[in-house]
Amino acid sequence: MASQNTPADPAPQSTEVGQSQSTTAPPAKRFDIFIADIGWETPVAQSLRKNMQLALSYQKFSTCYVLSKEQCKELFRMHPSMIGTEPSIIVIDREARAAKRSRGYGFKLNLGLIRDAPTANNILKWMLAVLAEQKPGSDITEPIRTVIHKEGLRGAIDILADITRSPVGEAATH
Predict the structure, then answer these.
(1) What are phi and psi of 80, to 5 degrees?
(2) Residue 105 gets which letter from DSSP?
(3) 27 Cβ contact list (under 8 Å, min separation 6)
């Protein structure tokens, strides 16, 4: 999903999601979500682009910024280790920053490192659900870190299972 920003407009494109229909003031936005997608043609990137509006529509406490290709290039110049990990989703917790917590300011989810679109979609949906369920004062990085590490271990086990196939064609771990 491309941004409408021009090089003269360096601010990311903001997409407000989940605006309140009530007459009371809407709750303060807690999270800033940045989508860094340079445009690689991969199944995971295509899936993210296709489902992004639907996924973000549930984020009533978030503001989403879709970085333009030029903004992504500038980000990658500052952080070259991000090249090839996109699409990436960067989440900043405004509450943690304002409270000057020692940790838990946010996280970066590198969807481009995931091999298949269904797995990436499941992780994306889970991450958005975690954001939507956060209570004030909670550390957003804790549930993300726990599940992503678990998924990383599962992935390592799957890789080992693929490598150590038995002669009858079944994985050695099953």
Answers:
(1) -60, -20
(2) S
(3) 20, 60, 61
Provide the pLDDT confidence category of residue 82 given band limits of 50, 70 and 90: confident
Which token pair is 149?
A: 């590490």
Other C-beta atoms closer than 10 Å to the C-beta of 39 total 11
CA angle 151–69–75, rounded 5-degree value:
65
What's the rounded Cα separation, in Å, for the pair 113 and 10? 27
The answer to whether the pTM exceeds 0.70 is no
Q: 20-49 pLDDT, tens per residue?
A: 444 555 567 889 999 999 888 899 999 999
Closest-CA residue to 88 (of 132, 147, 29, 44): 44
Pick the CATH number of 13-139 from 3.90.930, 3.40.30, 3.40.50, 3.90.700: 3.40.30
